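Entry 14. Structure prediction run on the chain below.
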Amino acid sequence: MDERVIDRSGQRASIVGLGTWQLGADWGEVDEKDALAVLETAAESGVTFFDTADVYGDGRSEQTIATFLRGRPDLHVLVATKMGRRVDQIPENYVLDNFRAWNDRSRRNLGVDRLDLVQLHCPPTPVYSSGEVYDALDTMVEEERIAAYGVSVETCAEALTAIARPGVAGVQIILNPFRMKPLLEVLPAAREAGVGIIARVPLASGLLSGKYTKDTVFAADDHRTYNRHGEAFDQGETFSGVDYATGVEAAAEFAALAPEGYTPAQLALRWIIEQPGVTTVIPGARNPGQARANAAAAKLPQLPEETVTAIRELYDRRIKDQVENRW
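Output returned:
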């Protein structure tokens, strides 16, 4: 699979990566055997970028990745993790002593001395503007605890604030055919600055797979049940913030736009891959078949211009007014 370079860190990532939130928690139960099979299939399909976080399954996702990579020393995988969501979400908690403690835990979970890429995990908005926070992250690099750092954001404004900081290597942001606002300013600014863009929630929590109807029932421990209105964390993390009924109807229209040989999910992934400035897109997978199909999007033909135009028209007509004023 083709790789793209994060200019500020010199690190490389496959254009389709793997998000491992599903392998930890909040999407229903996935046992370790199935999780390892997903990692194996992704790697066999050319994926060289795994994204995780210290709160996914309270460290389970990191530990599963470590178990897998210990058994595959031949692989060269860039592992990005995230930190910051294990404490009350107030700016005062984003300090060097806490960073070191969180880093120690993630290094133990992942079984490494130095983490490849650490991202602040959607912290309170003032954190992105704090010089002390970036000084602390620079100290972590100097101490060789981390090779590079970045941020995961909820809003485009937060992304632009982070991109302006010279030490930020990557910005992880929600980007998909139901969340196009980052195309306006964030991606051009990242390209100019040499900052990597990690596109997350690429299938709008599965909506863009075209598999769901208004009658679909998700498990009680699935965030698509308990966070539809932002009850547990930012609403934008679930269905990209789109009202479920609207999303299902729009997703049916989106699925009908898939060219021959594309699944709806692959259409969404291919659309993201083709946006200038995107480094990698990180769909999750609950089974090997999903992991294999997601990776295959990297080798599909470029989308026809008429398909791209139709996707934009659908977004403008059905989705834009729901999401652009919030994120």
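The first strand starts at residue 3 and ends at 6.
Filed with the rest of this week's runs.
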